[in-house]
Amino acid sequence: MLPPAQQPIPNIPDSGLKKVVIVGGGFAGLKLARKLKSGPYQVILLDKNNYHQFQPLFYQVATAGLEPSAISFPLRKIFHNTPNTIFRMAEVHSFDSRMKRLYTEIGFIDYDYLVLAMGADTNYFGNKAIEYFSVPMKTVSEALYIRNKIISNYERAINIEKMDDRKSLMNVVIVGGGPTGVELAGAMADLRNNVFPKDYPELNFSNMKVVLIEAGPKLLAAMSAESQQHSLKYLNDLGVEVMLDTKVHDYDGETVKLERKDPIHTHTLLWAAGIKPNYIEGLGQEHYAPNGRIYVDEYNEILGENGIFVLGDVALLREENYPKGHPQVAQVALQQAENLGKNLLKVAEGKERKPFHYKDLGSMATVGRKRAVVDLPFMKFQGMMAWLTWLFVHLMAILGVKNKLFIFMDWAWNYLSFDPSLRLLIKPKYVRASERKELIEEK
Amino acid sequence: MLPPAQQPIPNIPDSGLKKVVIVGGGFAGLKLARKLKSGPYQVILLDKNNYHQFQPLFYQVATAGLEPSAISFPLRKIFHNTPNTIFRMAEVHSFDSRMKRLYTEIGFIDYDYLVLAMGADTNYFGNKAIEYFSVPMKTVSEALYIRNKIISNYERAINIEKMDDRKSLMNVVIVGGGPTGVELAGAMADLRNNVFPKDYPELNFSNMKVVLIEAGPKLLAAMSAESQQHSLKYLNDLGVEVMLDTKVHDYDGETVKLERKDPIHTHTLLWAAGIKPNYIEGLGQEHYAPNGRIYVDEYNEILGENGIFVLGDVALLREENYPKGHPQVAQVALQQAENLGKNLLKVAEGKERKPFHYKDLGSMATVGRKRAVVDLPFMKFQGMMAWLTWLFVHLMAILGVKNKLFIFMDWAWNYLSFDPSLRLLIKPKYVRASERKELIEEK
């Protein structure tokens, strides 16, 4: 990261409006910016990427079903013809709440309202070896890395004579029995069952294990008992080895050591076992919960700070039914952003703000082709119908007509052909010579 | 590159058939492998990538119109259900024509027939400074790099206060007036005219130059005078500065120095001015022309070597109308591969081979939206009709129904919306910690 620049961010038009500065273009930050786009504010949206990422479909990028571009949306394009919304690609460093100033790598900016919506990253719970050797999946880059890694493992495996030496390249171990882990395991098993044997006829895929490890006693702990049981059954049907009540102890890049169980050999340990909020300097320790979330009141505002709001994964807002805060999921982020947007518009009109109340719309997860589990407030269902519901809901949630159309076609194609076709090892191998580290050092 | 391994490539099934080993899965290598797939040979296809690249559309990847996956085809997928065709992803080192053995990074393989179809790479004509600072476009990785580079230049430019300091980040200079240079210049001008001003309302794009530099007196030197004149007119209409009879003298990453003309400031110099054949050790110098191509007879065979063939950009086959060899284009590669495929099948049946004759089917180039130039053997035409012809011909040449469909939809969308939507800076930023060089060195 570059050090924070010591001049104001250049070329921000002087609108005369109050400034709302939003850190992060995820579900919460983007929703809020859209909500405010015709309001009486100048909105400055900052993100370290120039695109919004649709996290629920990362696992399909990792398993060659969708292209990164299908689930990534250029933020500038979203704000065409909205002159009061300014986007800048920048890493954010810290803020000074007394001066009402935010510091970033491209300069500082003075705000009237600051919104912290920087989401969460992977949590390794302090295990350095796992952090060092495993692969996370919290960005579209990481999802693409997983795809490339698995394909290159098979390209390596095919050149190894002895079957035993090949196994660790072929096995895939996923840690974390939440929706991400379950969806990833199901999609990996589909690839093993339907696709890889055709791609690599020289390899025997009955030797390839797909293992899903969960520390707790259940998969999908936040869902209903029906969903938990069905998802376990579906994974078993697909040939996924599900290990519940199992803790990963250590990993050296080749062998996963488990507490009280036999080790598993794999080059590919995918870590989907926990998240921790991203951190920006500027607040006293008293504002932080032990898990790194920031305490906010019912308006998503930080108590005692002047005009600083927190949304989504980073916010810890205690409601009657959620004494430990809300689940760190997209629905909460979106609803909080919606409420804050309305409140900021109310404030401008001198009206009273409304406190946030979370409305749980339900949750769902897919497990391979044609199977999913759905918990709605009024009903629960599983199987093919749940899968179609999952497809429909995610398609509707995707931004933009073009992306909807292309994802729909990709899904239809993959479904009919049993053959997601994106098994390309397009590594960004090319780097201009003048930017290559080894060449620069030689000079 | 890894050193050549000293054992045979493992896991090649013993078919009892004669082995045809093909180096390179480009137009020629892929065509030949497909031609032989039900013949009496075991075909081993080697490529350093696991996909075939459709080079004529690289410029659309570079200008955010198409995804890399739309023009890249997993080679393994193409050879599903063809047990006598084996694919391996490997870099090739050298061959020993007396032993009939080819050395690669994954082992050696003994061949009956060796086919060299490794294509060509960028030629900087010995200018190290240009090689160091400019960007080539001979792979899909490089095309993607160009896209990312241009987008990140604008994200940087927007944070620069003074207009003069911004210009060099905004200008794009393309060297080489062949089809690649012309198509790239047209598409860049389209982006400048239609897309970037909406993405970056704070920047003034009348300050952005798109410059096309050609050392010779004409654009598209291999095409008709009509096509040359029309393409120049179309580029002028789009606001491209075309500089003919202009030689690039030097480049330091910021300033392009020209012979006898004012220098141009740019961070982005795209080099499409020449190619040179890729090289594999194993042949005496007498087989090479000064430009690096390998002399072959009318059967694409190297004289005096036993069963070594050369196809496409690497081959130098002199015909009556082509005393200096054929142009280094896809059509020649495809026709040579077709002929060699037929000849190898004839040889297996004890029949006589046919010499190669090139049939020039014509050539074409697009210049931005709705305009192209087409030279066919029986007629020449330009404009909208030529553009539709260009679209149709390229769509038909693309492998696979899915890719055809998706590219067609992308084109239709981009055409109707004036808004190619792939302006994503998805850098493969993520690398697993255990693979990061700086961390490994720290350890």
Automatic annotation (TrEMBL), chains A, B:
Pfam families: NDH2_C, Pyr_redox_2. Its EC number is 1.6.5.9. InterPro entries: FAD/NAD-bd_sf (IPR036188), FAD/NAD-binding_dom (IPR023753), NDH-2 (IPR045024), NDH2-like_C (IPR054585). It catalyses: a quinone + NADH + H(+) = a quinol + NAD(+). Residues 18-337 form the FAD/NAD(P)-binding domain. The chain crosses the membrane at residues 384-401. Keywords: FAD, Flavoprotein, Membrane, NAD, Oxidoreductase, Transit peptide, Transmembrane, Transmembrane helix. Gene3D superfamilies: 3.50.50.100. Residues 361-416 form the External alternative NADH-ubiquinone oxidoreductase-like C-terminal domain. Belongs to the NADH dehydrogenase family. This is NADH:ubiquinone reductase (non-electrogenic). It comes from Algoriphagus pacificus. The lineage of its organism: Bacteria, Pseudomonadati, Bacteroidota, Cytophagia, Cytophagales.
